[in-house]
Inverse folding.
């Protein structure tokens, strides 16, 4: 009896069988795809759409709704920032200028440096982030971000807006010098940008510059920004808040010669009146003081001028001062006069050189040199120097 041969581990498959298996597989794939489409188009028994996104384990809403809510909140946040800026910017500028004036005694150099820093600080923050970000740890990066945000917020306070310039928004003592410092800072920043643009072409021509591009760029930017500061200080006009800028050694007015015998500057206004609180309540910055004698008589004029944040503060301080109150250090019997000019409160005293009593018929010419010194101070502040009228009630002893 004969037996069939063993096919072994590999079984022979005919070509017809392979074609039939391929067709069966394609038919099964089409049937599975059709089933999925029918399920997607037919809601489940509970009324939910199988194709709709399903809430997560925590019951969160679909991602599309969450992103829409985030967009709305972002828009509201931006609107809120603009509203807060317009509401807070005037107060912020007043605080900024007041702080700078208090720290620098409203000097021309100090206020100009303040304006330059308003531009230089944001530029420095961006430079630090670009150079040190990869090397810094988490605390260092946080400090750089905080510095950048703060400096840019301060810079935004001095953005004039449409149809306005710096002179329209910067008010108060030293504001003109702050504006000049800002412009010089912007000039330094513009020079730095031009330097970077030029450096690109220099690097292509000089390989060593291209290899050290970052180092050369950082040094060049820093040098140009810093170089703008001394130029700005040198070009700044005086703030006329220092005694030496206001009171000359010899003052000639109405044909009289007044000679300065005392000169001083003081932070704050302590020691002007017996009660310091009368002048201190509104936050004074600096007090300038000068004393003069005159060749018209033996009268001595002593003027102290106290600087405040604005005209309103000076008016409030003046309103608390009553007649008959003599300044500290008055020599004998004096006639005291209180007045204001802009943000300044003027405390003047006039008397005889030997301190004797000022009689009623002497009062007019004893006050004459004080009036001349006051006119000079006011004229210096407003930029218009004129002599007082000698035919008024207060007049010289010698016509």
């Amino acid at each position: 009896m004969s037996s069939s041969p063993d096919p072994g581990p590999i079984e022979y498959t005919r070509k017809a069988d392979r074609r039939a298996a391929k067709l069966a597989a394609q038919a099964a794939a089409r049937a599975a795809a059709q089933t999925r489409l029918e399920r997607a188009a037919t809601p489940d028994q509970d009324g939910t759409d199988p194709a709709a996104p399903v809430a997560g384990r925590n019951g969160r809403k679909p991602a599309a709704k969450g992103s829409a809510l985030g967009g709305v909140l972002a828009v509201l946040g931006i609107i809120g920032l603009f509203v807060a800026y317009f509401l807070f910017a005037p107060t912020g500028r007043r605080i900024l200028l007041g702080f700078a004036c208090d720290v620098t005694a409203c000097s021309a150099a100090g206020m100009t440096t303040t304006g330059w820093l308003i531009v230089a600080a944001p530029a420095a923050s961006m430079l630090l982030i670009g150079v040190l970000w990869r090397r810094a740890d988490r605390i260092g990066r946080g400090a750089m971000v905080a510095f950048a945000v703060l400096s840019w917020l301060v810079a935004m306070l001095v953005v004039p807006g449409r149809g306005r310039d710096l002179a329209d928004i910067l008010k108060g003592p030293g504001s003109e010098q702050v504006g000049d410092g800002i412009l010089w800072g912007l000039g330094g920043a513009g020079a730095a940008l031009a330097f970077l643009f030029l450096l690109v072409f220099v690097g292509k021509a000089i390989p060593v510059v291209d290899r050290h591009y970052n180092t050369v760029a950082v040094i060049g930017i820093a040098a140009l920004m810093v170089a703008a500061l001394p130029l700005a200080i040198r070009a700044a006009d005086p703030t006329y808040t220092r005694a030496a800028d206001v009171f000359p050694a010899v003052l000639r007015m109405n044909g009289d010669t007044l000679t300065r015998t005392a000169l001083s500057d003081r932070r704050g206004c302590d020691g002007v009146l017996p009660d310091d609180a009368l002048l201190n309540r509104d936050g004074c910055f600096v007090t300038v003081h000068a004393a003069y004698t005159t060749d018209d008589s033996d009268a001595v004029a002593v003027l102290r001028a106290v600087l405040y944040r604005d005209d309103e503060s000076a008016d409030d301080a003046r309103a608390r001062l009553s007649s008959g109150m003599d300044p500290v250090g008055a020599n004998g019997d004096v006639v005291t006069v209180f007045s204001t000019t802009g943000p300044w409160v003027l405390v003047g005293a006039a008397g005889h050189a030997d301190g004797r009593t000022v009689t009623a018929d002497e009062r007019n010419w004893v006050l004459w040199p004080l009036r001349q010194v006051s006119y000079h101070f006011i004229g210096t502040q407003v930029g218009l120097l004129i002599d007082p009228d000698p035919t008024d009630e207060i007049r010289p002893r010698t016509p």
Q: What stands out?
A: The two ends are 165 Å apart (CA to CA). The first helix runs from residue 15 to 41. The chain has two domains: 73-235, 243-382. The first strand starts at residue 250 and ends at 253.
